[in-house]
Structure formats: C-alpha cells, structure tokens
Protein: Glucose 1-dehydrogenase
Amino acid sequence: MKAIAVRRGEETPSILEKPRPEPVEGEALVRTLRVGVDGTDHEVIAGSHGGYPDGEDHIVLGHEAVGVVVDPNGTGLSAGDVVVPTVRRRPNGSNDYFARGEPDMAAEGQYHERGIDGAHGFMSEYFTSPAEHLVHCPPELAELGFLVEPASITEKAIEHARASRSAFEWDPESAFVLGNGSLGLLTVAMLQESFDRLYCLGRRDRPDPTIDIIDELNATYVDSRETPVDQVAAAHEPMDFVYEATGYAKHAFETIEALAPNGVGALLGVPGDWTFEVDGGALHRELVLHNKALVGSVNSNVRHFERAVESVAALPDWFTDALVTGVYGLDEFERAFDDDDTTIKTAVEFGAR
Amino acid sequence: MKAIAVRRGEETPSILEKPRPEPVEGEALVRTLRVGVDGTDHEVIAGSHGGYPDGEDHIVLGHEAVGVVVDPNGTGLSAGDVVVPTVRRRPNGSNDYFARGEPDMAAEGQYHERGIDGAHGFMSEYFTSPAEHLVHCPPELAELGFLVEPASITEKAIEHARASRSAFEWDPESAFVLGNGSLGLLTVAMLQESFDRLYCLGRRDRPDPTIDIIDELNATYVDSRETPVDQVAAAHEPMDFVYEATGYAKHAFETIEALAPNGVGALLGVPGDWTFEVDGGALHRELVLHNKALVGSVNSNVRHFERAVESVAALPDWFTDALVTGVYGLDEFERAFDDDDTTIKTAVEFGAR
Structure:
C-alpha cells in the first residue's frame, strides 16, 4: 500500500510502498478515507517536533484521520463503521493514564503520538488501531471526519478552562481566539453557541479568506499590528475566555491582561525558548486580585473526540466549505502541504466511503 | 468604645474612642473577642494597600475577627453565638456577586473590605454586621477564631486549584508552600491530611521558630537561598500543587517550573510592579505540554469560612500554640503589630467569652 512519509535526512514528504498492516488482537483494520494536515505536520517534516519510530528510517505522517473499518478482527466494531483514531498510544508497557482513558494527561516518555512522535501516522491506505482508540463517526462525517481531531483539541481546552471556573458561578460572554489559522477559525465556529461576543486575532490585511470567515461568523477581527493582545481589553472589552493558538510566547503573558476579572486563558501553542521582559509584578497581581487563571492543554482523549464529532457535525456547510481549501489525491498530495495565505485547511484523500 | 485605627497622615495605629455602633435591620451587634494581625494590616498602616472609608479621617483596622453576638436584633442569630465575620461588604447598591454569595469574585469597585478598603474593620470593642456575613463558630473556637479568616483564604485557593484539575483524575501527592509566614505555616498544617509530602519555602537560618514548626509538621524546609523555586523539582521532586504566599513576583513564574505534569499553582501574593526577564517560551511550552495551570485567588466567601472553621478546629494544640506567638490586650496592643523574626501570628484581645 502507499503511504506518505518523511525519511530521515529529508525535509519533504514522499510516497513509500509499505506492506498493508495486519491487525493484532484488539485491533481493527481501517481503510483510510482522508487525513488532514496541520502545523504540527509541518514541524514534523522540518524535524523541529516529534521523532521517528525506534529503528525506522522514516515516519508515516498524519494524525487527523478518518477511515472505514474493513476488518473488525473480533473487536466490537463492524465492517463499514466510519471511525476517527485518537493520536496517543501506549509505549512499551502500560501506564495509569492509558488504563483510565486519559492518555492526553500522560507526561513525556509515557506515550507515542501517531504521525508525530515515535509511531507511524495514518497517511497510508490502511492503518490498524486498538479499537479503544477508534471513535465512531456518523457516516455523513466520512468526508469531514479529519476535522474531528483538531476539534477535539479545542474540546479539551474548553473543558479544562471551564473546569477551572467551576468553583463559582461563571457566565462568560466574550471570547478571544488568538490565531486565525485553521484551529483558530474552527474554534471561533465552535464557540459561537456559547459566547455572545467573539473576537479573533490575526495579522493580515483585508481582503483575506480567513478574515472573511471571521466576519461571516459574526466575530470581530483584531489585527495584532494595530491592537496588541495586551490592549484588547481597552480597545474592545475584557475577555472572559482567551484561547491561544498562535504559539507566540508573549501571547501567553499578554493573555492575563486581556482577560476580564474571573476569566481564564487556555494555552495551546508550543513555542521554542525565548527570553523577554515582562512586568511580572503587574501580571502576578492581576492574576490574584481578579481571580484569573491560565490552563495549558495538549492532546485530547476519547471523551473529547466524542464531543468533537458532535461539534463538527454541527458546523454549517458554508463554514467547512470555506475552511477546507483543498483535498488532494495521492497524485498531487504535495499540494496538501502548501502553506501560503490562500491555504487554510487541507487534507489528503486516500479513498471514498 | 475603644477602637484601634490609623488616622490619615499617620503611620502607626492608635486607640480612638468611638460610639458603640447600632445595628440596623438585618445586622447583629457583636462584642469583639480577638482580632488577628497579618501582612495586609501592615500594608494598610503603611498606606500601600486599601483606603479610608469615604468622608472619614481614619480607618479602624482588623479583618480577622472572632466575637460573640450580644444583640441578634431580629436576625436568626442568638445572643451568645460565637461568630466570625467575612470581610467584603456591599458598596452602595448591590451587585450579583453579593446576591449569590460570592463577593470574593467581585471585581474592583464592587466591594468594600472591612479594615482594609473603604470600610472600618473589626478592631473595636463592638462591631455590627449583616447576619449573612457572620459565620458560626463552635464556642471552643472563641480564642482561635481569628485564624478562621486566613484559613478561609487557603480554603478558597485549594478549592479553585482542585476545580482546575477536576476534568481529569488528579491524585496529588506533593505540595510546596512558598512562604513561611503565618499564612504559609497555617497552609502547611491544613494540607497535611491531603498530601503525602509537603515542602515549605523560606529564607531563614536555623534555629528559627518557623522552621521548627515546618519540621514538626513533617514538612521539608526549602531554603530559597540554596534551592530557588525553579530548582526544587530537580533538588527534591516536581510538585503537584504549589501555593504561593510570598508576594514575590518571580515566584509566580518559577512555580511553573516547580510543578509536576498536570500540577497547579495557586497564586495569592499581591506584588507591586516589577519588570524582569523570563524565558517566556519555555514557560509557555511547559504549561501546554504538561497540562499545567495557574490560578489566582483573592478573598473568600461564607462557604470557605465554614470549611475553615472545621480546619481550624482540627489543628493540633501544639501547632496553634507555636503559631500564635502573642495575644495582647488593649494596654499593650502595639506589640501585636511587631514584625520581627520571633513573631509569627499575633492578635489583639478585646474581651473573653
């Protein structure tokens, strides 16, 4: 079967021929439909994040997949089920986090991430997975199921942010999403139901397809070149919830100033080292005197995937049509890795249901 | 009646003669037993925190009180009830936070704080309070009831920290209290039941009475001059819970490095402005990749006071004997405001039950 992988020493993905995997006990065999591409894939390709599986000279890419079960192999699944795989897998030996269904909370060294770190991903015509790591999708989501994994990332971040505010009555009205990449836009769409006023940060000029989507979602576009994050409270309003998806380290700290009293910032970016000055006294004081919180969030588990299935199913067609700027077959898979200002979200298509 | 107050323009407290207050509808009249002194009192005296009541040339000090109801005035209380007052009061006009019993979550301008900001405190022979802001104490706590308010601060911080970890299974084992002042020591004692291993940060040499208490509580004393907060994970162990009670702004950021994966830091200090360098990229990344959280916490509400009553009642005698280094009558009240290395916790005594 064909797979899209990065070989050691190379910095572009290529197609490899690999044997079709055989499911072992507890695993099902899945025929891949589509696999999305995101910033993490670009980092894996560039070698700045993740790592090859032990003893392998390549890593198969892809962690945002949707497929169809072709061999349930004695698991509770049925042939024809549309499924989305979660990303983290047990390394050698189990651990408590996997045992209780919370691999997203496992610390470094206690997991592999398929397509990212230590395990092959889903960008191949077939893949196997333990059934416990496959989440059911309605058949209608066969085409857009590759959005479930990124949506699950947001579901977890929202869950943890809300949990942090659960000790008191919190009725948030305003939310500010930092980043107009595909995850930021997806999050703005997902937050529409639960917030009265939405804002989304970018640094692009109009006309721009991401700003068009922000407008269409009735969110306010905030240009960080005109209104930095730490000035948004004065320029617009203090934000009950901030969702950081830029990976720009100063945003993690400016978030504290953007928040309304009792607000919470969910941080999702993974920046490199960067030393800079902050008014640490003012930030510390502001966190305390206004009961603010910051929660870091990475990865997601089956519970978040299940919620994400519902969230993706509820997205309006105009939105997903605008968000997904390209779905490419194996004959032109390279285009799925384009990363210019007209590209928002892409996927590689391996087959149809 | 006699009251201990700071007059505008003065920087030491003095005794004033004031009329005994008359309870209005909904208020009870309370005869004061004891009122504790803490760092906030010293800040109010120095003029660096809080403010005078409108139109007054002085502020009566004291926000850590215990007293006996002498005139229930038609409220549900009974004469002889031992009570502890909460600190925040409605300013002119009500607001939602007070209406739902969460004045601790009100933003600036939406509350007065008795003895601190905009309202007279409890350091007088009698005080009045709306009954809804008086928390019952068992009579046995008549002498130590002044510890309930500081304990309630810790109850709230713990509640918010635990809430932030409630979206997953969190079984914390190690806790690190930053600060060996009276609040830090009280917190170490309160955490003994729920953590296997406790650490407490200070910067003093042995022999020292606070270090003796830390030893006696089976906690590990961490000297910040030898082991800075950001090195405690390597020197001892990563901490599931960090409680910051130093008001030293760098600690808010170093807490992120001290935390174990999935850990939470509760911040309680209120530092002044202070600009310094941080490796913001590393801190941001660490928050995200290890699902860490920071929660700021200020003040406390009736729910936290009620829990604090139980916590204070459970403190061993040896601990409260060592913690409370002095209780002084009005004839020597100045000694309650001493702030040297042999002083841990003091109170002014206005009367006995």
Observations:
- DSSP finds ten helices and 20 strands in chain B.
- Chain B has a mean pLDDT of 97.
